[in-house]
C-alpha cells in the first residue's frame, strides 16, 4: 500500500513513522502503508471527490482519458515522476 499525503511541512522519516503509528493505533496494522509519498495536491473531480483510478493509471504508465472531469488535472504530473 502506498499513501500519498499533502503536508504543510516537510515529510521527514520521523513524520512517516508518526503517520504509520497513528494509522496502526486508530485503524489496524493492516492499514499501515508500505510507503508514504508527499505530493503537492491530490487530483479531484469537479465535485471534489478524490480520483484514485486516474492516479493508478498514471502510475502504471497508462493514458488518463477523463482529464476533463478533473478540477485540477495538473496534479497528475506529480505522480508521473514516482
Write the layout of secondary structure elements.
Elements: E1 2-5, H1 13-26, E2 35-38, H2 52-59, H3 77-80
Parallel strand pairs: 1-2
Task: Give a verbal description of the structure.
- By secondary structure, this protein is an alpha+beta fold.
- The protein is built from 3 helices and 2 strands, in the order βαβαα.
- The protein has a two-stranded parallel sheet with strand order 1-2.
- The longest helix is centred in the first third of the chain and has 14 residues, at 13-26.
Labels describing this entry:
alpha+beta, 3 helices, elongated, about 80 residues, two-stranded parallel sheet
Strand order of the largest sheet: 1-2
Largest sheet: 2 strands, parallel
Residues in helices, as a percent range: 25-40%
Please give the alpha-carbon distance between the first and last residues: 14 Å
Q: What proportion of the residues form beta strands (DSSP E)? A: 5-15%
Quaternary status of these chains? single chain
Q: Could you name the ranges where pLDDT drops below 50 across 5 or more consecutive residues?
A: none
Count all strands and give the number. 2
Structural class: alpha+beta
- Determine the number of helices (DSSP H or I, runs of at least 4 residues): 3
Could you tell me the mean pLDDT? 94
- Rg calc: 14 Å
Report a brief summary of the structure.
The chain has helices at residues 13-26, 52-59, 77-80, and strands spanning 2-5, 35-38.
